[in-house]
Design goal:
There is one protein chain. This protein has eight helices and 20 strands. Helix 1 runs parallel beside helix 6 and helix 3 packs across helix 6. The protein has two domains: 201 residues, 3-Layer(bba) Sandwich (FAD/NAD(P)-binding domain); 142 residues, D-Amino Acid Oxidase, Chain A, domain 2 (2-Layer Sandwich). The protein binds glycine (GLY). Glycine (GLY) binds next to loops. The site of glycine (GLY) has 8 residues, from loops.
Length: 368
């Protein structure tokens, strides 16, 4: 009996690859693998600067996942996925006015609790790290261990490696979860055919709460609009996040001459519109932070949906429906949490239990 993975984004493919490496037969079903949040993601691997106040458990999971990244990438390369580079220049968080500076001071105190390296920098120290920063920047934090990766390159590598270890990828729309005698036993496809398998791993990202036949899940789409730009080599060495008089923006270099600028956070359901206002605001703030962004070519605008949950944390492991396993709800941290999620679900599928680090993220007590 094959394991069925519903969803071929980063999470679904990584689960499938890790499970297949451990000897399981795995089928991934996705009409267009990697076309959801994996396509829009900026690729920040940022346990510190993506953590909100009160999210210590999520930050611990994020650290576990980041620690796994080097071995995960080495094994991906060994399985034919090619080399995907981690960008390890760290993350600068900068501010412009007195309120931004006060916010950075509060964040500094909060980040220090984590034990991860964080340093308060003057404006000139920040500009020594990133000479392209605006002279208007008033000060910064440097989070040395917040890294990044190109999510599209990672998805392509996972696709290659998963295929190489025998994962079968079915390109079809999933119509419903098949439930037999109170147990998930397969997936019905849009054409009417049925794939039988067990368990079924739900890795549908923002769509996880919409699968007919599945129990109601507390997963909702949270729209993000994002921009991709191309231009001079080496404009930035690492991620720059900014508070621009209270507004948040981030700039992530994902190749020598490429930059992602993001992102909006909008509760608009599955609205896919790229709006003039959002593009304007993102570019205005990005140019305020790094004036040379104005010279770059705007090559892509995109809107996709983060799989949001009420507590911003993923849902990992058994679901209320026997035979259905959850690997969803990664909200703003899908790329970061990919290795820890894949290993946790592969453990569950092979030895029948989640590792300790995943235990706080089960569905227990978190269902609607
Ligand atoms: N992790 C960045 C975002 O969700 O916009």
């Amino acid at each position: 009996m094959s394991v069925l993975v519903a969803g071929g984004g980063l999470i679904g493919l990584a689960v499938a690859w890790r499970a297949a490496r451990r000897g399981l037969s795995v089928i991934v079903v996705d009409e267009d693998p990697g076309s959801g949040a994996s396509r829009a993601a900026a690729g920040m691997l940022a346990p510190l600067t993506e953590a909100a106040y009160g999210e210590e458990a999520l930050r611990a999971l994020s650290r576990t996942s980041l620690d796994r990244y080097p071995a995960f990438l080495a094994e991906l390369a060994a399985d034919g996925g090619g080399t995907v580079a981690l960008r390890t220049a760290g993350t600068l968080e900068v501010g412009f006015d007195a309120d931004d500076m006060a916010a950075l001071d509060r964040l500094h105190t909060y980040y220090l609790e984590s034990g991860l390296p964080v340093e308060r920098l003057t404006a000139s120290q920040a500009r020594r790290r990133e000479p392209a920063l605006s002279p208007r920047v008033r000060g910064a934090l440097h989070a040395a261990s917040d890294h990044s990766i190109d999510p599209r390159a990672l998805h392509a590598a996972l696709f290659e490696a998963a295929s190489a270890v025998g994962v079968h990828i079915v390109r079809s729309r999933i119509a419903e979860l098949v439930v037999t005698d109170g147990r998930a036993t397969g997936l019905r496809l849009a054409g009417g055919s049925e794939l039988t398998g067990s368990p079924v791993v739900l890795a549908l990202g923002a769509w996880s709460g919409t699968l007919p036949g599945a129990p109601p899940l507390p997963v909702r789409p949270v729209k993000g609009q994002i921009l991709r730009l191309r231009g001079d080599e080496g404009l930035l060495t690492g991620t720059v996040r900014a508070l621009v008089r209270g507004r948040s923006v981030y700039l992530v270099p994902y190749a020598a001459d490429r930059l992602v600028v993001g992102a909006t956070t909008e509760e608009l359901g599955f609205d896919a519109t790229v709006t003039a206002g959002a593009v304007h605001d993102l570019l205005r703030d990005a140019i305020e932070v790094v004036p040379d962004v104005a010279e770059l070519e705007l090559v892509e605008t995109l809107a996709r949906w983060r799989p949001g949950t009420p507590d911003n944390a993923p849902l990992l492991g058994p679901s209320p429906l026997p035979g259905l396993v959850l690997a969803t709800g990664h909200y703003r941290n899908g790329v970061l949490l990919t290795p820890a999620t894949a290993d946790a679900i592969a453990d569950l599928l092979t030895v029948g239990a989640l590792p300790d680090y995943a235990a706080p993220f089960t569905a227990d007590g978190r269902m609607p």
